[in-house]
Amino acid sequence: MRDLSTLDPSGCLPELPGTLDPPRTALSDLRHPAPHPHRARGHAQQWGACLGKPPPLDRCIAALNYAYPWDLLIQRFKLHQAPDLRRALVARLDQALVAVQALPAPEWLLPVPLSAQCLRERGYNQIWELARDLAGPRQLRFAPDMLLRVRDTRHQIAPPTEERAADVRHAFAIDPRRAPQLRGAHVTLLDDVMTTGATLHELARSLRQAGAACV
Residue 110 is inside which H or E element, if any? Predict the structure, then answer.
């Protein structure tokens, strides 16, 4: 059964007091957030929508809030080629996973693919770097080329919330040569920043269509 209390606003993630709007990194356990007195009715509506149409993610774990100083460090890491920050970011991701270590260990750790334009501009895929360093010590299967971005999309912070899901629809695919390896598998997706979760939801749908049992 999916843990519906751990998902983002487009898939019904409860909002946290003091961190209602900033995006979060995509790996603090959000299972039991403190209630917000002014938004209880909104939560009930969100969760009701989830029951009617369950999101494709079973669970979402965030390493930290996208706020000072981490927001600046992540921007420097991803936009200004600062690989020296990788170790600190991987350590925070690892701490977040240790905090929920009772969860079944995934078999695969798959990074969100960048667009060709972003890859040309940045010169490297910062999410691959994080995923590789996180997967090694945990002995997870890491496949940087299994998930494919088949068309470019706008930066997900730019468009209005209601447009983000439509913008990434059908933007991803799975390498058909590798897809059979995902049948019945427990897969963890890794992204550096999570806003509404539209990108992760679209990728999760693709993984489920390929037969992944848990995302």
Answer: strand 108-111
Q: What is the DSSP code (8-state) at residue 148?
A: E
Q: Rounded to an integer, what distance in angstroms lies between the CA atom of residue 7 and that of residue 59?
A: 6
Q: How many other CB atoms sit within 10 Å of the CB of residue 86?
A: 15
Return the higher-pLDDT residue of 167 and 205.
205
DSSP per residue, 27-77: --B-SSPPPPTTSHHHHHHHHHHHHHS--S-S--B-SSBS-TTHHHHHHHH
CA dist 70 and 206 (Å) reads 30
| Nearest-angstrom CA–CA distance, 213 and 125 | 27
Distance of CA 78 to the CA centre of its chain: 16
Question: Which sequence spans correspond to the domains of the chain?
Answer: 4-209
The reported pTM is: 0.75
128-178 pLDDT, tens digit per residue, is 999 999 999 999 999 988 999 988 766 545 555 567 677 888 889 999 999
DSSP summary character for residue 3: -
Q: CA 163: distance to chain centroid?
A: 18
